[in-house]
Write a structure and sequence with these properties.
heterodimer; A: alpha/beta; 7-stranded mixed beta sheet; 5-stranded parallel beta sheet; 13 helices; 12 strands; 16% strand; B: 290 residues; mainly alpha; two-stranded antiparallel ribbon; 11 helices
Chain lengths: 402, 290
C-alpha cells in the first residue's frame, strides 16, 4: 500500500515534468548588470539606483518573468564603480567580460558612463543610462541607450522656464553665474550654458569650476554675492560640495534662483544636512520623476514603506523604468543574447506604464540611442518638500521665484 | 580685490589649517616615536567622525563636547593595532606599511558594512550659522572645531613637555637605545604614542563631523594632506606638523583664489616641491649627516 502510494507520487511527478514543467525548470536566470557608485563620493546615488533596480526585478519576477523565454527570471548582478574613472573602468571590464550579462544599467555619473560605454561597445552589451553628458550619445556608439535628457535639452528648457517664471514674478533674468566641479556632466552642462545663455540675452558674470572636493565654499559664495547674478547654475556632484555650497550661499544671504543638475540636490541626506530653510527654492533637473500618473504615486508609496524615506529622486525612478525597458527588450528578443537585446532596444516603441509613468513619454530610441521624446523634469524644494515644477503640464506645483 | 576678500581667504585658510594641524600632529607623533608611516591614520579619523555621529544620533550628544571621550575610544581602538605593529621587527618597513594599509582597508570595509555608503551628517544649531566680522564670514562649526583643535594641540604640547611619559616619548624619538638604557620601557612608549595618535585622530574626527558628512572613504581626502603637512613641517616634529598643517590650509585657500580653483591641490604640491628644494628636511626638521 505504502509502496504503491510512493510509486504513484513518483509517477505523478515524472508526468508533471514531462507535461510542461520542464521549460520553467530548465530556464536559467537572465543576468542584468547594475554598475553604479556604492562606495566613495557618490555612494548615496548608487544606493538610490539600486533600490529602483531591485524593486523592478522583484516586480518583473512576481509578474512571471520573461514570458517569451518561458518565464525566465531576472537576476541583478551588482558591481561598484568606486570613486574614480579607473575603478569604474575596471569594474565594467570585470562585470561585462564575464559574458553572461544581457544588459547593463549604469552608472549615474557621466564620467563613469563614458568609461563603461567603451567597454560595453567592445563586448557588445547594451547599456541603459540616465547620465546626462551630451557626449554619451555622440560618436556613433551602437550599444548605448539613454532614457532621460542630455544637458543640451536640460539647458534649453531650463533657460526658457526660468525666464518665464521670472517674468511672471515681475522680474528679468539678465545675468547668470556658473559654479560647479569639473566632472563630465558639469563640463557638458556649463558648455551648453556658455553657448546658450548669451543667445538668450543672459550675460555670464561668474564662472567658477573646481576639482572636487572643495576645501572651502565660502570664497565661491562671496564671489557669487559680489557678481550679483540673477540666476545661479550649480554643477556640484558630490554630497559634501553640494551641501557646502548651498550652506555658503545662504551664509552670504544671496536670494537668487539656484538650478542644479542631478539628484544630489534632492536626496534625503542633502535635506537632512541643510534643513528646510536652507534648501527652500533650490531646483534640480531630473531625467525622470514621480509624475501625476497613478502608477508613479503607487510606486512612491511602496518606496516609502520599503525605505522609511519620504521621497525619492531620478536615480530610483530611472533605474526602475530602465529595468522595465530591458524587460520589454528581452520579451521582444526572446533571448538573453545581449546583441539581440540591443537590436530589440533599438527598434522599441514602448508604452509600458512602468517606464512612461516616470519618463512622461513613450520610449523610442533615436539611432544614436537617445530616447526621442525625453523630457527635462525640474524639481524644486518648497516648504521642505521636493515638488515637480516642470514640465508645466506635469507639474505638481508652480515654480516659486526668490 | 578687496580687504574683506583677502581676509576671507585668510580666515578660511587658518580654520582649515587648524584641523590639518591636529591631524598632522597625530601622524608625526606616531612617525617620530615609532618610525611607522601609518596609512590607516585618516581611517581612525573617519571612525572618530562615525562615533561622534552615532553619539549625536542616538543620544543627542554634541560632537565638539564629546571630542575627548571619542578620542579616548579611538585610543582604545588603536591599541590592538599598536600591539601588532610592535611585534613587527623594527626596521622592517615593508611589513609595517603593508600592515597599516591592511588596517586601513579593514576599517573602510567594516565602516561600509556598519555605517553604509551614505554620508552621515550631524546638524547642530551652529552648523549653518556664521559670524560676520568686518565682512568676513566665519562658520560657527568650523570656528568651534578650530578652537577645539587648538586646545587639543596645546594639551599635547603640555603632555610632551611637562610629563614624565611625554619626556620619555621625546627621548625615545631621539634615540630609542639610549632611552631604553636609562630605564624607559621603549615598547610601552611606542604603544602609548600610537594610541595617543589614534586618539587625536578621533578627537579631530569628532569636531570635523559638525561641518563634514562622514562616509567610509572620507579619509582618502585627508591622508595625502596629513602627510604633506608633516613633511613640510619636518618629519617627527610636532610643532613642525602643526605649522605644516596651518601652511597647507593657507596654501589651499590662497591657491584656490589667486591661481585657479581647479588646481587648488596642485598649488599645494607646487609649494611642497619648492619648499623641499630649499629645505629638504622641512621647516622644523633637522638634516641627518652621514
Amino acid at each position: 500500500m505504502w509502496h504503491n502510494k510512493i510509486s504513484r507520487r513518483i509517477r505523478f511527478a515524472i508526468a508533471a515534468i514531462l507535461l510542461g514543467a520542464t521549460p520553467a525548470l530548465a530556464q536559467q536566470d537572465v543576468n542584468i548588470g547594475l554598475l553604479a557608485p556604492f562606495s566613495g563620493l557618490w555612494a548615496e546615488q548608487g544606493r538610490l539606483m539600486r533600490i529602483g533596480a531591485e524593486m523592478a526585478i522583484e516586480d518583473i519576477n512576481k509578474q512571471g518573468g520573461i514570458k517569451s523565454m518561458g518565464g525566465a527570471k531576472l537576476k541583478l548582478v551588482v558591481a561598484d564603480t568606486g570613486a574614480t574613472v579607473e575603478t569604474a573602468t575596471n569594474a565594467a571590464q570585470r562585470l561585462l567580460s564575464s559574458g553572461n550579462i544581457s544588459a547593463l544599467d549604469c552608472c549615474w555619473l557621466s564620467s563613469f558612463t563614458l568609461a563603461a560605454r567603451e567597454i560595453a561597445e567592445r563586448l557588445h552589451v547594451p547599456i541603459l543610462t540616465f547620465a546626462s553628458n551630451d557626449g554619451i550619445v555622440q560618436g556613433g556608439y551602437k550599444y548605448i541607450f539613454r532614457s532621460g535628457t542630455g544637458t543640451d535639452l536640460q539647458v534649453r528648457t531650463s533657460i526658457v522656464m526660468i525666464k518665464d517664471a521670472a517674468a511672471k514674478a515681475g522680474g528679468k533674468i539678465q545675468t547668470g553665474a556658473l559654479i560647479g566641479d569639473n566632472t563630465a556632466v558639469t563640463v557638458s552642462y556649463f558648455k551648453n550654458l556658455e553657448e546658450l545663455l548669451p543667445k538668450n540675452g543672459v550675460k555670464i558674470v561668474l564662472n567658477r569650476v573646481w576639482t572636487p572636493p572643495l576645501s572651502d565654499a565660502i570664497p565661491v559664495a562671496v564671489a557669487v554675492r559680489d557678481a550679483n547674478p540673477d540666476v545661479i547654475f550649480l554643477g556640484t556632484t558630490t554630497f559634501d560640495d553640494s551641501v557646502a555650497i548651498i550652506r555658503a550661499l545662504n551664509a552670504v544671504k544671496i536670494k537668487r534662483p539656484v538650478l542644479g543638475t542631478g539628484a544630489q540636490f534632492l536626496t534625503p541626506e542633502f535635506f537632512k544636512a541643510l534643513g528646510p530653510a536652507a534648501v527652500d527654492g533650490v531646483m534640480a533637473t531630473q531625467g525622470s520623476a514621480i509624475t501625476k500618473n497613478p502608477f508613479a504615486a503607487e510606486f512612491l508609496e511602496r518606496f516609502k514603506k520599503r525605505t522609511n524615506e519620504g521621497w525619492t529622486v531620478h536615480n530610483t525612478t530611472s533605474s526602475y523604468a530602465e529595468l522595465w525597458i530591458i524587460k520589454e527588450a528581452l520579451e521582444k528578443a526572446g533571448s538573453a543574447d545581449p546583441v539581440k537585446v540591443r537590436d530589440a532596444l533599438a527598434s522599441m516603441n514602448s508604452k509600458n506604464v512602468q517606464a512612461t509613468a516616470f519618463l512622461g513619454v513613450d520610449v523610442h530610441f533615436e539611432p544614436n540611442g537617445q530616447n526621442a521624446g525625453a523630457l527635462n523634469f525640474i524639481v524644486q524644494w518648497q516648504d521642505g518638500k521636493p515638488m515637480l515644477v516642470s514640465p508645466p503640464e506635469m507639474a505638481t506645483a508652480p515654480i516659486k521665484m526668490k | 580685490m578687496t580687504w574683506s576678500f583677502l581676509g576671507q581667504t585668510l580666515a578660511g585658510g587658518i580654520l582649515l589649517g587648524g584641523i590639518y594641524a591636529l591631524l598632522a600632529s597625530s601622524v608625526t607623533l606616531i612617525f617620530g616615536v615609532m618610525r611607522v608611516i601609518n596609512f590607516a591614520q585618516a581611517d581612525f579619523m573617519m571612525l572618530g567622525m562615525a562615533l561622534a555621529f552615532a553619539l549625536n544620533y542616538f543620544f543627542g550628544l554634541d560632537p565638539i563636547v564629546m571630542a575627548i571621550p571619542v578620542g579616548l575610544a579611538l585610543a582604545l581602538a588603536g591599541l590592538p593595532v599598536a600591539g601588532v605593529l610592535e611585534r613587527v621587527p623594527r626596521g622592517n618597513q615593508d611589513a609595517q606599511l603593508i600592515l597599516t594599509l591592511g588596517v586601513s582597508s579593514v576599517i573602510q570595509s567594516l565602516a561600509l558594512i556598519f555605517i553604509g555608503p551614505t554620508p552621515k551628517v550631524v546638524l547642530r544649531p551652529y552648523t549653518n550659522e556664521y559670524f560676520i566680522i568686518g565682512g568676513i564670514l566665519i562658520n560657527h562649526a568650523r570656528l568651534f572645531a578650530f578652537i577645539a583643535a587648538l586646545i587639543m594641540m596645546f594639551g599635547l604640547y603640555l603632555f610632551l613637555t611637562r610629563t614624565w611619559t611625554g619626556r620619555a616619548m621625546r627621548a625615545t624619538a631621539d634615540d630609542p637605545t639610549a632611552a631604553g638604557s636609562v630605564g624607559v620601557n621603549v615598547a610601552r612608549i611606542h604603544m602609548t604614542a600610537f594610541i595617543i595618535g589614534t586618539g587625536l585622530d578621533g578627537c579631530a574626527g569628532s569636531v570635523m563631523v559638525t561641518f563634514l558628512g562622514v562616509n567610509p572613504v572620507i579619509g582618502s581626502d585627508f591622508i595625502m594632506i596629513m602627510f604633506l603637512a608633516v613633511v613640510m613641517g619636518g618629519l617627527g616634529s610636532v610643532p613642525g606638523a602643526a605649522l605644516g598643517g596651518l601652511l597647507v590650509g593657507l596654501i589651499q585657500s590662497f591657491g584656490a583664489q589667486f591661481w585657479t580653483l581647479q588646481l587648488q591641490n596642485v598649488s599645494l604640491f607646487v609649494m611642497f616641491v619648492a619648499l623641499l628644494l630649499f629645505r629638504p628636511q622641512g621647516i622644523f626638521g633637522f638634516r641627518l649627516r652621514a
